[in-house]
Design a protein that fits this description.
This protein is an alpha+beta fold and about 90 residues long. Helices cover about 40% and strands about 15% of the residues. The protein has helices at about 1-15, 45-55, 70-75, 80-85, and strands spanning about 25-30, 40-45, 60. The radius of gyration is 19 Å and the shape is elongated.
């Protein structure tokens, strides 16, 4: 009986929980050198991205395909990152 109650509780929480939404983060980290490394586009700020690649190699760049409103809303832009690999998409 307790297991059945637990199953119903989990099902109710899943049914009425907050739905997941996709995130559109504006900064990407390219690990390693060039296109051979991994890429992670999960950073809200340039500083977050640089902290992630610090000491392990790589660089940060802003996504090129963000909507104009999202790009303008990002006050944390780095000219160096924008000039690196202009046109590369995450």
């Amino acid at each position: 009986m307790k297991i059945l109650l637990l199953v119903y509780g989990i099902a109710a929480a899943a049914a009425f929980g907050t739905p997941a939404e996709a995130q559109n983060y504006p900064w990407c980290a390219q690990y390693g050198s060039g296109y051979g490394g991994a890429m992670n586009c999960g950073f809200s700020t340039y500083q977050q991205c640089m902290a992630d690649v610090s000491g392990i190699g790589g660089f940060c760049m802003q996504k090129q395909y963000l909507p104009a409103a999202s790009r303008a809303a990002s006050t944390d832009q780095s000219p160096e990152a924008l000039s690196l690999l202009n046109g590369l998409q995450c």
